Amino acid sequence: MKKNTPSILGGACIxxxxxxxxxxxxxxxxGAGAWTIYSSLALVFTMLMMTLSGWLLLEAYKKYELxxxxxxxxxxxxxxxxxxxSNLSVYFVGGILLYAYTTVAGLTLDGLLGSVxxxxxxxxxxxxxxxxxxxxxxxxxxxxxxxxxxxxxVMVFTFIFGVSGLATNIDMTILLDxxxxxxxxxxxxxxxxxVALTSFGYHxxxxxxxIYYGSENKAKYAILGGTSIALVxxxxxxxxxxxNLPRADFKQVFVxxxxxxxxxxxxxxxxxxxxxxxxxxxxxxxxxxxxxxxxGLGMFDYLADFFNFDNSTQxxxxxxxxxxxxxxxxxxLFPFGFVKxxxxxxxxxxxxxxxxxxxxxxxxxxxxxxxxxxIGGGNFLLAVLIIFGIAVAVIHFLDMFGVLPxxxx
Length: 409
Description:
cell membrane; transmembrane; single chain; aromatic amino acid transmembrane transporter activity; mainly alpha; transmembrane helix; Amino acid/polyamine transporter I; Amino_acid_transport_2; 18 helices
């Protein structure tokens, strides 16, 4: 019998599930200063840059075996030192995101189901969450494909029904913040970029997509589909919030800690229906879960290649352990909010989502030419991507030290 070819939609949903997660809640928090127009421009530009950088990785991989991933290719093309830095940044970003998602999941389950395990309830819920859903990653990529499609559908339907109460009541005066000086928005736009970059971070899954399809061209379209789905969801979510919560009302969100609970609390003041509020909470849970399994899949395949673990049951258990146990242990010992974690992840992620892909392709073209799968734009595109990556990292650290304007309502 003929083997079924994986659908582009399935791969796109995996990529979208990696992108769309808790970062979706962080976008309006960090974008409140830039507000609607400049936040949207930041999202669109970042999506284009991150899609192109993923395509460049596919071009760099094309002469290698399907089982080769980022570590193998980087070591061969750029050497051990750069490979070590790349590996460290990949593991840091993937680990801290899994850490943040696990912590958020534990807090959410504890809030919904109660502290049934006493003082250690949050930690135990985190353990249950990881043991339950990391099993999908351990099982197979196809299992993640199927659950990713389901989670995307859950997010779409909960988004439609939950956010429709906001979207149908969008006030254009609030959405465009009419009457205020437009130039005031632009100076806050830069701080949006690190969170936007993290929100389109799927690059550790590029090798998984290539393995899944056995073709760079099909993986290319899956990546574009996934980032496009993510962009549409981000924009609709942002418009719905900014069209209902006046810009000045974000002051209370920041007073309450500037985290996802504070944002949902502010939304709860706008939404009169408890049913709609519950649906939005369900959307948030599905978003966190989809990112957890998506990021987990990319890290699982990446670390299996890095440590040379085989695909046997024992080998996959080893890959599972190095992927999920460190973030789980840290989330139990040191739980904290995800917005700060996502900011740090965005700064470090520039190394392997922007800078290294450009360097890899440049070296690969020098060695192998441009025959076969190829992304246009020449050295100009590579330079733009490197400059973008460096700029995002610098912006994060300037923001962290209070150098850049930071909107507080």
